[in-house]
From TrEMBL:
Superkingdom of origin: Eukaryota
This protein's name: RXLT1 xylosyltransferase
GO CC aspect terms: Golgi apparatus
RXYLT1 C-terminal domain ranges (all copies): 246-435
Compositional bias annotation for Basic residues: 33-45
Limits of the RXYLT1 N-terminal domain: 97-240
GO molecular function: ribitol beta-1,4-xylosyltransferase activity
A Pfam family recorded for this sequence: RXYLT1_N
Naturally occurring in which organism (per UniProt): Pelecanoides urinatrix (Common diving petrel)
InterPro entries reported for this sequence: RXYLT1-like, RXYLT1_C, RXYLT1_N
Keyword Transferase: yes
Presence of the UniProt keyword Cell inner membrane in the record: no
Annotated signal sequence range: none
CDD domains in the record: RXYLT1-like
Length: 440
């Protein structure tokens, strides 16, 4: 029914436009019949009035005719403007997409990639929502604990589901949402579904495959984090991990002081040091030459999912006060720290090593890990072994303050462009997949 109403409205607009064009043709372009000759008007004043009017014959209806022509022209232009606005409105809202944010990565999509706002601003609110137009698409976003299957209004025929598939408990919850979306597809409540997935850190995402259209499912598009082996740039796309929105890491606006103020530390590392990991090697190298005195280092032995107010403030201060942010591999090479450092203009120094996993084993991933970031020309420092770090820090000491400022500008401009590029790619992919093609 909704599609039929849209087609009826479009037909009415086109019909009105054709009528307006015909009216304009009648007024301005259609040949007019010559007026019947009038008998000469005799006046007692003789030729004096004729002389006063020059060589033109006086027409008592001339003023009315001019006014009517002006009014017709105005109506014609108003009709054209109305048709143009109607067409523009139809183009702008030709696709409506509702995003269901059921994983924290949805906040990175909406607030950081799209630059969208949410009401209420309180991050603990049970229900938060926002909307914006982009390209030919009107996006609405909902999130919060109160967004439960069957208990909210589905106001678009196209849905993007943001899900967490990192572990078994999260996958179980994610499949409930997929089954709900599948029911809406079968009952013709919605037409298309895309999924943004926080994937498993070892890229064990096989559970999602039966839901994809290419495997007989109903999910048109999949955007997934990490260097997933099945990324093909056709219906499966790599998506950035982003910042730790689940820890309420904020959207950071670049400032003059962030770019131009001196920073107190060459580098920083605040994080968990796992046993028998390269992070232990990193700590040893920093201690050997006293480099830890030049850097803000705060290591812990056990990972903590939540930060205290104090630890979170220290972390943000470390990013803001350090020229470099050290990013050793964890369970996966890609980590939140990379994007959080970019937010504060602290250049990531990344251990460019593929972690043991099912990630990146594809001919498409010749430069894995971090294929997405490398493809976009990320201006980071990539090293294969932390033994290279002393040389990196020595070079850092030799850099002038102005060189560091220029590097910060380049990094922060790149990050802004990266987010804008991801936003446009996301929109284009949805529109190309969800909008009907114009093939004749």
């Amino acid at each position: 029914m909704r599609g039929a109403r849209k087609r009826l409205c479009s037909a009415l607009v086109v019909a009105y436009g054709l009528f307006s064009l015909y009216a304009a043709y009648t007024v301005f372009l259609r040949p007019r019949r010559p007026a019947a000759p009038r008998p000469p008007h005799r006046d007692r004043r003789g030729s004096r009035d004729h002389v006063a009017m020059g060589n033109e014959e006086w027409n008592p209806w001339e003023g009315d005719e001019k006014n009517e022509l002006v009014a017709s022209q105005q109506r014609y232009e108003a009709n054209l403007k109305m048709i143009k606005n109607a067409r523009s409105h139809l183009e702008q809202t030709s696709l409506r997409v509702q995003i269901w944010g059921k994983a924290a990565i949805g906040l990175y999509l909406w607030q950081h990639i799209f630059g969208g706002h949410l009401q209420p601003a309180d991050v603990t609110a049970q229900w938060r929502e926002g909307s914006q137009k982009a390209g030919k698409t009107y996006f609405s976003f909902i999130t919060g604990p109160s967004v439960v299957p069957g208990y909210f209004s589905v106001d678009a025929e196209n849905v993007v589901l943001v899900l967490n598939g990192r572990e078994k408990a999260k996958i179980s919850y994610a499949t409930q949402w997929l089954h709900y979306a599948q029911t809406l597809i079968h009952t013709h409540k919605i037409q298309h579904v895309a999924v943004v997935l926080l994937g498993n850190e070892q890229c064990n995402n096989e559970w999602i495959q039966p839901y994809l259209k290419r495997h007989g499912g109903f999910v048109n598009l999949l955007f997934v984090t990490y260097d997933y082996v099945l990324v093909n740039e056709e219906d499966i796309f790599q998506w950035p991990l982003g910042v730790a929105t689940y820890r309420n890491f904020p959207f950071v606006e670049p400032s003059w002081s962030m770019l131009h103020d001196p920073r107190s530390y060459l580098c920083n590392f605040l994080g968990t040091v796992y046993k028998n990991s390269s992070r232990e090697t990193l700590m040893e190298i920093l201690k050997q030459d006293g480099l830890n005195k030049l850097c803000w280092i705060a290591a812990r032995e056990q990972w903590q999912p939540q930060e205290t107010n104090e630890s979170f403030k220290n972390y943000q201060d470390a990013l803001l006060q350090s020229d470099l942010t050290l990013c050793p591999v964890g369970i996966n090479t890609e980590c939140y720290r990379i994007y959080e450092a970019c937010s504060y203009g602290s250049l990531p120094v990344i251990e460019d090593v593929m972690t043991p996993s099912d990630c990146g084993n594809s001919s498409m991933y010749h430069s894995a890990p971090l294929q997405l970031l490398k493809t976009m020309g990320a201006p980071f420092i990539f090293i294969k072994n932390w033994k290279e770090l002393p040389a990196v820090l020595e070079k850092e000491k030799q850099m002038s303050f102005q060189e560091k400022i220029q590097r910060r500008k380049k990094l922060m401009e790149w990050y802004q462009n990266f987010k804008a590029w991801m936003r446009q790619k996301f929109i284009n992919t949805l529109e190309n997949s969800f909008l009907p093609s114009d093939k004749g």
